[in-house]
Each structure stands twice: as structure tokens, then as C-alpha cells.
Write a structure and sequence with these properties.
The protein is mostly beta strands. It contains no helices and 11 strands. Strands 2, 4, 5, 6, 9, 10 and 11 form a 7-stranded mixed beta sheet that branches. The protein has a 4-stranded antiparallel beta sheet with strand order 1-3-8-7, with no helix packed on it.
Length: about 120
């Protein structure tokens, strides 16, 4: 069982920044990859970014250059630094992992970007 707790969401004006955190209940060194997804109202879930074991990162085209995913291994936390936010970034953001073959997801943190 893995517990993931997201935090750091809030309301911000376009052009602003937020840093999301995802605290894991397990050693994130033991996880192959941790992903951030988001889901806007009435929309399907969208993959945002991943950090892969060893530190490699990947981003969707819609956020590349604006968002940065990073790991704090001693604290078993993964961050998503979001800069130059746009109204279309408004969504609930979730972190997800696959651990020992099973999927786990946090409850999400809401980000609202006003024009």
C-alpha cells in the first residue's frame, strides 16, 4: 500500500507560479516512476510530467518549459514547480505511482488560474 498526499494547490493569476508537492509513504527510490496528472472540469485526465528512477524527467508538450518536476529523495517527496501559469492549467492535479505492479493515486490538489 502506498499513500500519496498532494499539497500546494491554490488560486493564482495568469503568469503566476505554484509549487505542488506529493509526499509518498514509501521510499521513492524504490519506485520506477512517479507521474503528475491533471483533470480539468468536464475533461479527461491528462498526463503532465514524470520523473523516472535515476532522475530522468519527461513533460507533456503543453507544460514543457514552464513546469519542472523534481525529487526530494530523503523526504520521499516529488515536486511540480509550475511557472507562467495559464488559465488552461486550471485543474485538479494528482500524483500517481505504480508500486509492485499496483497503481496508486493521491486525492489531488486543486489549481485555479484566473485570467
Amino acid at each position: 500500500q502506498v499513500e500519496l498526499v498532494e499539497s500546494g494547490g491554490g488560486s493564482v493569476q495568469a503568469g503566476g507560479s505554484l509549487r505542488l508537492s506529493c509526499a509518498a509513504s514509501v521510499n521513492i527510490d524504490s519506485i520506477n516512476a512517479l507521474d503528475w496528472y491533471r483533470q480539468a472540469p468536464g475533461e479527461q485526465r491528462e498526463w503532465v510530467a514524470s520523473v523516472i528512477h535515476g532522475g530522468r524527467t519527461e513533460y507533456s508538450g503543453s507544460v514543457e518549459g514552464r513546469f519542472t518536476i523534481s525529487e526530494d529523495t530523503p523526504n520521499n517527496t516529488v515536486y511540480l514547480q509550475m511557472n507562467s501559469l495559464k488559465s488552461e492549467d486550471t485543474a485538479v492535479y494528482y500524483c500517481t505511482v505504480s508500486y509492485r505492479g499496483l497503481p496508486f493515486r493521491g486525492r489531488g490538489t486543486r489549481v485555479t488560474v484566473s485570467p
